[in-house]
Amino acid sequence: MGKTIIEKIISSHCGRDAGPGDIADVFVDARVARDFGGANVVLNIVDNGLKLDDPARTFFTFDCNPGGSDQKYAANQQRCRGYARNHEVKIFDVDQGIGTHIAVDDGLIGPGGVFVSTDSHANIMGAIGAFGQGMGDVDIAAAFTDGKVWFKVPRSMKVILKGMPSERATPKDVVLKMAQELGANGLLGYSAEICGRYPVGLDLSGRITIASMCTEMGGIIALFPPNETLLEELGSDIDIHTVWADQDAHYDKEVVIDISDIGPMVARPGHPEDVVMLSEVKGIKIDSAFIGSCTNGRYEDLVAAASILKGRKIAPGVVLKIVPSTRKIWEMCLKDGIIETFMDAGALIGNAGCAGCAAGQIGQNGPGEVTVSTGNRNYRGKQGKGDVYLASPATAAASAVAGYLTSADDIPVEPMVFERGKEASSGGMVECTEGGEVATTFRGKIWYIPRDNIDTDMIYHNRYLSITDISQMGQYSFDNLEGYEDFAKKAGPREIVVVGKNFGAGSSRQQAVDCFRSLGVSMILAESFGAIYERNAINGGMPIMTYEPVDGGFSQGDEVEVEIGSGKIRNITKDVEIKGEPFSSVQMDIYRRGGLLKRPCE
User: Fold this and answer.
1) What is the pLDDT of residue 75?
2) What pLDDT, on a 0 to 100 scale, did the predictor assign at position 599?
3) Residue 467's closest CA among 436, 509, 407, 495?
4) Which residues contact 27 (CB under 8 A, 6 or more apart)?
5) Strands 370-373 vs 387-390: parallel, antiparallel or unpaired
């Protein structure tokens, strides 16, 4: 039987044939740590007495906080700089832009390669037919020092985009349509291959837009088979047939999404998958607009915005913030007069970087503020305290001029102005492992939170990401999850958290695992976990297990007993048995060691 794209890439990087479900040690071509995760990566390496595998394949990218405007970010960046100087590691510093885009544009990774980063949108590498994976601090430290990391080969899904969208639609509108159809976990655990007449004709920018938002559908990666046009754009001479899926490759699932004649789409606040046609929300007054992010900060995105802003002014009282994804794109816009167009329209242009997705940066909004954004996420609190609608650069630019949500072909002569009198509503060092026995049976009361898609911003908000001391993390657990803001004050040691599907969706932050370790929570049971979160928990030595739901199986405060070796779960209070998935041999080994980076004493 033939192989899918992901199976070919992993097989070529582990030295053997690898199929779905296999666990393989995979060689990593490019290993990257960002500014918020980089400091913990360095601490993990230094505290465990580890050495770099290959400095030439190791990089730091400072894209979350260009300029280090926050003291803790500045300290973290400087820690990374010091380490990089001592070990001849290249840094793409605060003046360079988004690390994943730099990796593509500067050739750190090419089609068929493997790339890892502390960026949950590292899977934009799927745009060039490469495997990119966002990871937590422990994983990246292992990649830095071992040159490889373990992967469980994901199942493959073929996503066929049927038909062609209208001329009014952009790649952002297409991926929002995908999110509408697939939902927040429709790609959970899958490597998707994007097929159809439409994706074949996409340039690199359009492919990046769609590949980036794979994360918001729970996917491992969304892969585009590279073509000759793309290879020419990348300057690559790889034989594309070595990357393409075989004709007899097996796909676990095939999904057809009809994009025929779709127009502008918008995701409503709080959920990237809550997508409607722009016409359904047209006329909603906005306070601000943001154009940028790893999803829509490319040159082509900014050209599209400039074509709408040319000769126009932003509506009175509306703020438009624009952030190119890289310095090179910034310079191209400057050379071609696009920056001048933005300035003449009244926009604020920021340093290249992640911008609105990172707390404290350009693109954040305040309580009661309504923003239209080209970002990939609009989780509550992610881009600020206000409401965030996701849309294309064209829609964001048109709405900034109109003063309300509208399309590029329906901009009024006179903008909507704000009504007077309305106020915004408020809305340590790691020791070696001695090899002693550890508990494999857990017993305790449960915190039952029957919700799906609890994302990492709800678990551990991004405003705390600069904290590196695990002992300080517990107090912030769930403080952005509505109804559970006081969880950290009420949770007792050895208690067990039980949740629904796709727990830990979103960011690659290790803190969303470590906060529970800090509190003394003994383990987490979920119907399913976000792919990155699952890795972070396993690698951090935090016991997690999936279970098959049973009607009435859990209630708040029940006492349960869990055997991780057998997967047996017994609700003692109700005398009910629930089936769980036993620890794999790899998971059990890492757990017994106390974490991926633990080394036995010599």
Assistant:
1) 87
2) 75
3) 509
4) 13, 14, 114, 147, 148
5) parallel
Q: Do domains 265-402 and 441-593 have the same CATH topology?
A: no
Give yes or no for a contact between 393 and 172, defined as CB atoms under 8 angstroms apart: yes
Q: Would you state the pLDDT for residue 6? A: 98
**Tokens found for residue 369:** 């503020």
- Identify the pLDDT of residue 600: 67
Q: Which DSSP category does 158 fall into?
A: E
Q: How far is CA 58 from each of CA 111, 145, 151, rounded to the nearest angstrom?
A: 18, 10, 19
Q: Thinking of the domain 265-402, which architecture would CATH place it in? A: 2-Layer Sandwich (3.30)
Please list the ranges in the chain whose pLDDT falls under 50. Answer: 424-430
Q: What residues does each domain of the chain span?
A: 5-258, 265-402, 441-593
- pLDDT given for residue 354 in this prediction: 87
pLDDT at 385: 85
Helices then strands, counting H and E runs in the chain, come out as 20, 25
CATH number for the 5-258 domain, one of 3.30.499.10, 3.30.70.20, 1.10.1200.10, 3.40.50.620?
Answer: 3.30.499.10
Q: In what order do the strands lie in the sheet with 90-92?
A: 90-92, 58-61, 30-34, 114-117, 131-134
Three-class secondary structure of residue 201 per DSSP: coil
pLDDT of residue 427: 41
The answer to whether 415 and 403 are in contact (CB under 8 A) is yes
The DSSP symbol for 20 reads: T
Burial (Cβ within 10 Å: 0-12, 13-18, ≥19) of residue 414: exposed
Give the E-state strand segments of 329-416 in sequence order: 348-349, 370-373, 387-390
Strand extents, DSSP E, 338-381: 348-349, 370-373
Name beta bridge partners: 322. 291, 349
Give me the pLDDT at residue 361, please: 72
Which tens digits make up the pLDDT trace of 160-182?
999 999 999 999 999 999 999 99
CB-CB contact of 219 with 211 (8 Å) = no
Tokens of 147: 């040159």
Q: How many Cβ atoms are within 10 Å of 193's Cβ, its own excluded? A: 26
Cβ atoms of 99 and 119 closer than 8 Å: yes
In terms of Cα–Cα distance, which of 34, 17, 1, 13 is closest to 466?
34
Residues facing 131 on adjacent strands: 114
Classify each residue of 443-469 as buried b or exposed e, where b means 16 or more C-beta atoms within 10 Å of its C-beta: ebbbbbbeebbbbbbbbbbbbbbbbbe
User: What is the second-level CATH architecture of the domain 441-593?
Assistant: Alpha-Beta Barrel (3.20)
The tokens for 16 are: 């053997």
Q: Which residues of 250-263 are buried (b: 16+ CB within 10 A; e: fewer)?
A: ebeeebebebeebb
* Residue that the structure tokens 């017993």 belong to: 443
Please tell me the predicted confidence (pLDDT) of residue 429.
42
User: What is the pLDDT at residue 404?
Assistant: 98
